[in-house]
Design a protein that fits this description.
By secondary structure, the chain is α+β, with helices and mostly antiparallel strands. The chain is built from eight helices and 15 strands. The chain has helices at residues 18-32, 47-57, 69-81, 100-105, 111-116, 152-164, 169-183, 240-252, and strands at residues 5-10, 36-41, 62-67, 89-94, 123-135, 138-144, 147-151, 187-193, 196-202, 204-208, 230-235, 261-266, 268-273, 278-281, 284-303. The longest helix has 15 residues, at 18-32.
């Protein structure tokens, strides 16, 4: 381990400030294990992208994320922007609100156990997703590690992050879901899945790379992080009472038997809508459709 030189990027606001409280203990564990590292503290949304890009340019052997899923997302986007993501090595100590990504890849939830992963590091090569979308009238691009969605899914993220994040993982998501449910209307979209086009009315469409989302929902039980495909969950024109009634099934992973829920394996998806629809990636709001999603197979090595 002493031969590895790491840049640790810490998001102190992740987990409603929990990361700032835990960082001294995590730093002590790293030093006790003999990890050679320097660290940077993020100062604003998007800062981790620039810090990761700089770390890649400076030749660090590994970049470690200390924060939530949003912090991981920013670091991966920074590594990608540096142009050599296939040479990058990502470490994760999850201290955020949701922790959905680590549930799939197998990084321990407890930070003490996650730090011990660096003593005898094992590498897992994973897929990433890319979204091309519209933000402030301009074309934009963003990578995601776990999942991305539009419609009802993205509006829950908006409510959760803006109004309820301080409540914690599951309570904040449920509060955001119930608040969104009151006002949301299903939308007509044009959907193209690996070249197969269909016009339909939907509640939401979610592109899953990992198996979990929304603070523990078992959204895509059969998803694999390195099979070269998204598991695309399409919830059709489901009524609000039915959606609310079906919510517990999503946490159990039994929602796939519902007649208005479809799951498809795909590498590329395009979505268009005549009305504005929000987009989210890894729990971060991005912009609006039209959007194109594509898989990047086996492009990042992660310590597990």
């Amino acid at each position: 381990m002493s031969s590895i030189y790491a840049k640790v990027i810490v998001n102190p606001t992740a987990g409603a400030g929990r990361t700032a409280r835990l960082w001294p203990q995590i730093m002590g564990l790293f030093k006790g294990q003999g990890l050679r590292f320097e660290h940077d503290i993020t100062e604003a949304p998007g800062h981790a992208i620039e810090l990761a890009k700089a770390a890649a340019a400076d030749g660090y052997d590994m970049v470690v994320s200390v924060g939530g899923d949003g912090t991981i997302n920013e670091i991966v986007n920074g590594l990608y922007a540096a142009g050599n993501i296939k040479d990058a090595l990502l470490g994760i100590v999850s201290t955020g609100t949701g922790g959905d990504y680590i549930r799939t890849i197998g990084v321990p939830r407890r930070y003490e156990e996650a730090c011990r992963c660096f003593l005898q590091p094992k590498k897992l090569t994973v897929d990433l997703g890319v979204i091309e979308y519209v933000s402030d009238g301009q074309r934009a691009e963003r990578l995601f590690v776990n999942f991305a969605g539009m419609g009802f899914d993205a509006e829950i993220v908006q409510r959760t992050t803006q109004q309820f994040k301080a409540l914690g993982s599951l309570p904040s998501y449920l509060a955001g879901l119930l608040a969104t449910l009151m006002s949301y209307r299903n939308r007509d979209i044009s959907l193209v899945v690996d070249g197969e086009a269909v016009d339909m009315r939907v509640c939401t469409v979610v592109m899953n790379n990992g198996r979990y989302g929304g603070g523990g929902m078992f959204t895509a039980p059969d998803a694999s992080i390195n099979d070269g495909y998204f598991d695309v969950m399409i919830i059709g024109d489901m009524s609000k009472p039915d959606l609310l009634w079906s919510l517990p099934r999503i946490y159990k992973g039994t929602h796939l038997t519902h007649p208005k829920v479809t799951m498809k394996k795909a590498k590329e998806i395009e979505i268009r809508s005549a009305k504005p629809m929000q987009l989210q990636a890894d729990g971060e709001l991005l912009g609006q459709v039209p959007a194109r999603f594509r898989i990047l197979p086996s492009v990042l090595k992660v310590i597990v």
